[in-house]
């Protein structure tokens, strides 16, 4: 991928994602949380600047936070909130924040209720999931036993979520999104335009439309090749909308011979929708022998 960083723009909240787990480092589990969270942060106007993955080791977790804190205002941490001995995230985050852990009885009752619904007794080890940094706000997890938390420390906003993706999405919907949705002012939120092409290589495409994009320092421009497609993406500020949409018309015309989809267009779905209007369809294959 190639990018054009553009000229300085109004300050945006910068965010970073720290994923914790040996299974991520070994490749046993794909770090889908980072992609999912980043997509939603960008939709809210945040600039996601780093993804880090570290092992379930106390010093590694704290080192990960140390490396992200200088470049981001909001830190999203996932994983390591379980009830076993290798779940060390809450302890490491508390130590990084310089705060003692405090027991939260409401979190214990939350766990007891979940086990009661399953008609099972609660292992004593689950009490580990009831400790949080002293000044943290506990975030109820309707999808699992591990309540999340958010805490302010070192002039950073830290959100600590469990690892299972369905629990991340539940906590995001209930707690994170309502808090962050108005954080970045609308004038500072970049909007996205995209073109998906087929039949032309990334370098040829860039060469073809390069003159149109020359000196567009106010735009963030990126190419992404993923066979058989090459995508062009442009992000712009609302203040530049008129000139950018005018440019978009020229780009669409220039890419017309290879254009497959524009913005949120879904050609396969559109084709199915149009086909459904007919009682019968005849397919003629003039290529396959």
Automatic annotation (TrEMBL):
Species this protein is from: Planctomyces bekefii
Domain MoaB/Mog, chain residue ranges per copy: 16-182
Protein name as catalogued: MoaB/Mog domain-containing protein
Source superkingdom: Bacteria
PANTHER family, alphabetized: NICOTINAMIDE-NUCLEOTIDE AMIDOHYDROLASE PNCC (PTHR13939), NMN AMIDOHYDROLASE-LIKE PROTEIN YFAY (PTHR13939:SF0)
Pfam family, one: CinA_KH
SUPFAM superfamilies cross-referenced by the UniProt entry: Molybdenum cofactor biosynthesis proteins
Cross-referenced InterPro entries: CinA, CinA_KH, MoaB/Mog-like_dom_sf, MoaB/Mog_dom
